[in-house]
Amino acid sequence: MTAELVRGQNHPLSQARLEIRVSAGTPIVAAAALSDETGRIHGVEWVAHPGAPTRPGLEVSRQAAADHRLAVDLDALPEAVHRVGVLLALPAGGAGPLRFGAVAAPFVAVTGLDGGEIASYTLTGLDSESAVVALELYRRQGAWKVRAVGQGYAGGLAELLTDQGLPQAGQLAGSIDEAVSQGLARSVQAPPPRTAGGDRSRRTAAPALGPDQGGTAPQPGPAPPMSPYRGQTPGGPGQSGPQPSACPGTAPDPSVSQSSAPAPGGPINYSHPGRQNAAPPPPPPTAPPAAPGQPARPVAGDATGWSMEERLYNQVWGMFEDLARTTAAYRSAVDFAESRMDKELEQVLSDPRSRLGGQGDAAREAARARHAQLVAQAREALDRDLSQLTAEADVVEPALPPAYARWDNPVWHAYRPPMEIPMALRLGDLHLPEAEGIRIPMLVRLPLERGLWIDSGRTGSSDGSFTDSHAMGRLAMETAVAHAARLLAVHPAGEFTVNVIDPAGSGAQPLAPLVRTGVLAAPPALGAAGVADVLERLTQRVDLVQMAVRGGAADSLPPGFDTSQQLLIVNDFPHGFDDRAVNQLRYLADEGPAFGVHLMMVADRAESSGYGPLLDPLWRSLLRLTPVSDDHLADPWVGHAWTYEPSLVPPGSQVLQQVLSQVAAARTKYL
After folding, report:
1. List of residues 6+ apart from 662 with CB closer than 8 A
2. Greatest CA span in the chain, whole angstroms?
3. Are 174 and 42 in contact (CB under 8 A)?
4. What 8-state DSSP symbol labels residue 120?
5. What confidence tens digit (pLDDT) does each residue in 151-204 have?
6. CA-angle at 52, arms to 50 and 55, nearest 5°
7. Taken in order 139, 141, 143, 145, is the CA torsion positive or negative?
């Protein structure tokens, strides 16, 4: 049960990895300060803020926003740290409000990795303050607790940090303001007002980076997921960017936090939500009531989340978990039935008196009958669960946004380049042999943390069909083009760039849609010279961004530097690659994703065997996909081998050409 704290109240924390969610009616700056047992901050390196968003065990937002999510790993904090203060401040020098008394009372919640809310606190009673210590996580006798503080400062961050014993308080406060104003952190507009008043929604969701976080280091959140669906984890150093929000012209999402509109000439009431008189925000969509004795009819978007996109993402993840669990239960029941029958038959055979005659036959028939009964009961339960999942898939699939939708979804016919980067991207479908009719979208979080490997070396598929090597190579390249087109389509104009290395020119035909529409950064690189040129340019880019980020000077990149995410498609590897090029490719695979360069290999691993074990780390670092259905995605969570189906454009469809034309037109306007 969630503990709703009041000022000064504390609550024990049973988890080390936490997420702190902050919601306000206006963009605010979130920071976190580490301090010793006496509450003293030892230096600027003990404060995580938009200019330096990561510290050991901490990560905060890189920008001012109305909603924040801060990641905390208490076990990763230095031994000298006994307190973690969550600091909130209004951006200085902006056009927004200058005191917290003029905005809705900020709401802060501490959640676990499963999204379950542990404690929450609404900061009421603020007036002239422009900075406030909202919460404090503190260590007491080896255990951690959270305390609602709510201590405000009219002098802003400088006064707050000075009060906590930081000698460089004024200098640090100035650098935070500068980071926000210079665009190191991109401001997110406050949510539009709601017609009906009320407190913000406090629905929780599965662990995820928030709409204001691009991430700068491996998250102190959950360990890399073991399921094939969650094969990607978000974020990486230097990969900031806006996350999902409602697009202009669309209706505001009821679950997004929004400030109440004050009555003309009247006072603003920001009382505790437990005592507020206004109506609560509208709940997520609910299904019509089901008939008595029948399961509830599913509805798209009924999972938890702060936006419809996040709710759909969590609903798809829930469908994956449900299918995995119900299939695992069925397989376990069948295994139990078989082991029980084997044991009973063994007992019959071990008794010489029952080996012959009708008594033994009757015992064997009874054992087989019990086995059939147990299997039938397990299948009945499986079919019941699959029926519910099928009904849910039927309503969820048509409601998915373009980033989550199949290429044959009608949503692509109304495609327009987005204004924000989505939470995730669909790379295909997953299914199990017990549920052939149910396809679960395989979504990976953005920005990509791992490169992709489209395996062109398989000559057979899970359905028993075979494809010759030439056709497989072409199909693999078409799969890569479909993935690249989707990545281009879901990013705002100018924020994603595609580079291609095709040394022998064998991918000219599959690459034609990208070349013809002009969405590539340059024509595909040919020959060894082209390979060396592209790899050298992208390697230098990673080096430059890496030095800037690690040196705390991300705002000092050369004028005109292209800050967009880069995707490198490599076809026909290792043709045209020498030893230097191979080492550069490995470097991009290892370091590139953290600094905005992503790799997509279209290759047959066997063809690179001449390099020996040198390239084994490269293949292991990439997420392997296939251009045909294949059951290669292992799920150690429940022991399944999921069958993966690539997301391909339907034969004869012009949707890819139409989408890429829209991307090219938007890029022209952007430039």
Report:
1. 415, 416, 417, 489
2. 98
3. no
4. E
5. 999 999 999 999 888 888 888 988 888 888 765 434 333 334 433 333 333 333
6. 120
7. negative
How far apart (Å, rounded) are the C-alpha atoms in residues 562 and 501? 19
Residue keyed to tokens 């308080």: 169
Half-sphere exposure of 649 (CA within 13 A, CB side): 25
H or E stretch at 321? helix 308-350
The pLDDT confidence band at residue 458, using thresholds 50, 70 and 90, is low
The DSSP output letter for 84 is E
Q: What Rg value do the Cα atoms of the chain yield, rounded? A: 28
Instruction: Provide the token pair at 362.
Output: 């009757």
Pairing verdict, β 451-455 and 622-625: parallel
Q: What is the pLDDT of residues 645-660, one digit of tens each?
A: 999 999 989 999 999 9
Q: How far apart are CA 256 and CA 276, in angstroms?
A: 19
C-alpha pair distances (Å), 290 with each of 287, 378, 380, 390, 451: 8, 25, 21, 16, 45
Q: Coil, strand or helix: which one is 29?
A: strand
Give yes or no for a contact between 514 and 569, defined as CB atoms under 8 angstroms apart. Answer: no
Q: How far is CA 609 from CA 452, 474, 573, 606, in A?
A: 19, 21, 11, 5
SS3 234: coil
Cα of 343 vs its chain's centroid, Å: 47
φ, ψ of residue 179 in degrees (nearest 5)? -60, -40
**DSSP conformation letters of 588-643:** HHHHTGGGTEEEEEEE-GGGGGGGGGGGHHHHHHEEEE-SS-EEEEEETTTTEEEE
Q: What is the pLDDT of residues 429-455, one digit of tens each?
A: 999 999 988 999 999 999 998 999 999
- Identify the band that residue 95 occupies on the pLDDT scale cut at 50, 70 and 90: low
The vertex-145 CA angle with 140 and 149, nearest 5°, equals 110
Query: Distance between CA atoms of 323 and 390, rounded to whole angstroms?
Result: 10
**Alpha-carbon distance 63 to 29, whole Å?**
7
Which of 130, 78, 86 shows the shortest CA–CA distance to 108?
86
- Would the pLDDT of 300 be above 90? no
Please report which helix (H) or strand (E) contains residue 128, including its range.
none
Q: How far apart are CA 11 and CA 5, in angstroms?
A: 8
CA distance 451 to 480: 12
Instruction: Please report how many Cα atoms fall inside a 13 Å half-sphere around the Cα of residue 194, on the Cβ side.
Output: 22
One-letter amino acid of 83: R
